[in-house]
Every structure is written in C-alpha cells, then in structure tokens.
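Entry 14. Ran structure prediction on the chain below.
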Amino acid sequence: MIRTTLTSALALGALSGAALGEASEFHTPWTEILQTYVVEGEDGLNRFDYGGLKASDEDQAKLKTYIESYATLDMDTLSEDEQFAAYSNAYNALTIDHMIGRYPVKSIRSGYIVGPWKRVNMTIDGRELSLDAIENDVLRVDWSDPRVHYAVNCASIGCPNLLTKAWDAETLDEDLDVAARAFINHPRGVKVLDRGGLQVSRIYKWYREDFENSNEGVIRHILEYAEPELATQIRANASIKKHAYDWGLNDVE
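Output, structure tokens:
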C-alpha cells in the first residue's frame, strides 16, 4: 500500500534526503504550470485555463520539456511513492498537453468514438506508454490502492480535481486523502437522492473491482472520507441507485 512504502524505504536506507529532494525538484515545472493555470472554484471544482496556456508559447514549451524529460528518468532509482507520484504527474501533464493541442473542444472525447486514452503516448524510462497504459497497466496494477482514481485527471468536470501542485512523495499519502475527501464530499462524487438512495460517480462503476468489486465495498470506501453529515445521510440511504459522470471539459468559465 502507498501509505507504507515511503516509511519502509527510509527504514531500509533505500532513499536519502538528497534523493527525495531531487525527485521533488524534477516535478517543479509541472507545479509551476499547475499553479499558474489551475483555478480553484468556490463550488469545490478546480478548473484549468486551457486558453491561457494555449496563448503562452513559453509555458507550452516548459510543459513539453517536462514531458520529454521522462524519457530518461530512471524509475529504478526512485522509491515506490516517488514512482507513483511520477506516473500520476506524467498522466496529468500528458493529458493537458494533448488537450492544448486540440483546444478549443467541449470534451476530451470530442472527435473520438471512445476517447484518446490508447492513442496518446509518451516515453517513460525508455518505455512508450499510452495514457491508458499508465493508468491501467502501471498504476492500478502496481499499487493496490483505490486512491489511484483521485490521482489522475482526465480533463473532465466529472473527474477528481487537478491539484495546484504536482504529486510529491513527501506528502503523497496526505494529499491523496485530501483529494479523496474533496471528491467524495462534492455532488459529482456522491449525492443523496431526494427519493432515497445514492447517486455516485461512474468511476465507482467503471473500476468497481478496485472497490471490493461490490456496491457495499464502494459505500465502505466512500464512508472513509465522507464528512460527518454526509456519512449519516449515506448510512440512512445505503443503496446505490444511479451512476453519473460529466464529460464536459473542466475549462475555466
């Protein structure tokens, strides 16, 4: 599990403070992009200023250079938490780069029958990986943690928030919990229906196997992060009636 790997690595002497600092610095350009173009909404939804980034040749070049730097990143020198952070940051940066190349569009799925996830690729540590492969062949396979789904953002309103900083091994566990709470306590994550029961994100249906492969497992997971008032409502309506997802682009309004 992610919440134990960093402690274990330090205990074994596998990761020095210097190495950790270097891994964090690697993601500085991505943090700078996020801090410049992610807009935190009062409604709990973080949006991205695609138009602003599209207008900046300098920042587009910074983003592309960051993505290209993954080609020679030696994953074997990184702790498991650093690897998780790196793959998650790579997924999010590549998604933004892809969207900037197609902007303006209404959705990441615009122009595709299904979506671009198997067609958009980058090289990581000498290995060419698509968005789909990063998520489903690496992150979900190598880390047994459902919080993976709060780490990657697919440029959609229905997706968990894109943060204002890069994922970082030093704060990974705490940040994943914050991301899970932000999503679950927002209506796009969980909503109590007027007629009883719950509407939950379609993420919990698409990736049901990551949540004990049952609605009961999904509810148990949700209750780990639900605020007290919502948790009380969930327990009184502990039946999933609907799934929903908004594919609209998480663009600034």
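Residues 80-102 form the longest helix (23 residues). Will compare against last week's run tomorrow.
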